[in-house]
Amino acid sequence: MKGHLNTGIGEITIDNEVLAKYAGAAAIECFGVVGMASINMKDGIVKLLKKDNLSHGVNVTVEDNKITIDLHIIVSYGVSISAVADNLISNVKYNVEEFSGLEVKKINIFVEGVRVID
């Protein structure tokens, strides 16, 4: 299902892929997040995604115009995962709600790996 906004003079439909890309872009701006992760289910291998593949580490569902976002991330070594997650949730929630005009109901964070940054 996609997000819908009724403006009074028409309707706006927002594709889930658009919401996923926006959420991914907001996520990688957060301190402690190295990038989005993609998991090869066959091999169980986690891969750091390049900036042009941000939506692949994000799953968005929309029910009753409320958004649920799953973020698969790789964090920097030495950071507090709970602090990164709190910052990530508030940043992504704010940015996606401002961008779309829809409510973010839930954000699930899956830490798929840790990277040592030189």
TrEMBL record:
Cited InterPro entries: Asp23
Family note: Belongs to the asp23 family.
Official protein name in the record: Alkaline shock family protein YloU
Organism for this UniProt entry: Herbinix hemicellulosilytica
